[in-house]
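Q: What would this complex look like in 3D?
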Amino acid sequence: MNVMKKYRVCIVGLTGIGSGRPLVNGEAGYGSVVPHSHAAAYSTLPETEVVGVCDLLQDRLDQFKEAWSAALPALKYYTDYQQMITELKPDILSVVTSDNRHADIVVFAANSEVRGIFCEKPIATTLADADRMIEAVEQNSVAMTINHSRRWRPIFRPVMSELKRGSIGELRRIVCSFGGPRAMLFRNGTHMVDTMCMFADSEPQWVFAELEEGYEDYWPYQGDGGRTPELEPAVSGYIHFKNGVRAFYNNAKRMFGRRDWELFGTTGCITVSDQHASIETENGERKMDCLHNTCVDSPAVIRELIGVMENGGETCSPPRQGRRVLEVLLGFMASQKKGNVRIDFPLNENAV
Ligand SMILES: NC(=O)c1ccc[n+]([C@@H]2O[C@H](COP(=O)([O-])OP(=O)(O)OC[C@H]3O[C@@H](n4cnc5c(N)ncnc54)[C@H](O)[C@@H]3O)[C@@H](O)[C@H]2O)c1
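A: Here is my prediction, written as structure tokens for the whole assembly.
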């Protein structure tokens, strides 16, 4: 008889995105029909079992216990992630701590025989942190994926297929708009920039930018890991990709809260938001559909990670791609700092 392997999982960081219960009805929140939170996603996968959770705050551990102890009676609770990893020896670790607190945890896990790491976005808030994370996972052959979730979001799949099929000819320009109070450079902007990279299918080569009004002297990162919008600027940014695609990032907090991408090719245009996509060519305009138009597909992220742990290769959101996105975010800030000039990559963050 074939016995299914159970992957032992630990989670560090227990706010809603780490711990939210799946909702029975509705699409909102941290667990809809297709669960969004890390705990909810693992709970749908019979090949995984959450064995330990960790947060610095006892309140968060208590809340997790209240929500999950019936489903996970043997679960162990920790305030020290090193102790948890050392004692429980998980196969997979979810890193769901604040944006600027991923690095130490990933490095420790990679050096402690954890085989797969599901890390929240952005990868980090400095290139130095991203580099030590990448070095640790590569040296230890650890599979790692960054939760730039639109890479798995169902509505983006048909868009990628149309692009690859050449339905709008050759992709030339991208306009990405993101307005509203959460239009923060790192916390949410990381998703928008990563998605532009996914569409461009190329590496950013240089950027220039002007930061939001009031943030003219913003260098280095001064956020609190993503909690407080006022601690991160929005940006008007420009990205030149190696393959010639050009992208304009129209991002402001005091702006109408639209969030979408317009992809201009030589023979057509695709407009995509988180819920809808349509394509316009000389033959007219049509809507695109996908099977499950849910917000995020976190179980798919984990299934893919396990596939890489077992078979090698990399996920569709590997840490080196996460670093590229971070280089763009920091490149925008460096451009402002130097008088809104062109910043060529590789960026030396120590010489800005
Ligand atoms: N992919 C998504 O849809 C999505 C949605 C929300 C947040 N996020 C990401 O998830 C991460 C967490 O976001 P948040 O808003 O909950 O952050 P937060 O800063 O509000 O909370 C982080 C939690 O981690 C805990 N923590 C921090 N350092 C720790 C450590 N060393 N050991 C144990 N626990 C520690 C804190 O006590 C807190 O409970 C961020 O990287 C964020 O960008 C992703």
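A: To summarize the key features: Residues 12-15, 17, 54-57, 60, 81, 96-99, 101, 120-121, 147, 149, 187, 225-227 surround nicotinamide-adenine-dinucleotide (CB under 6 Å). The longest helix spans residues 319-337.
Q: Very helpful, thank you.
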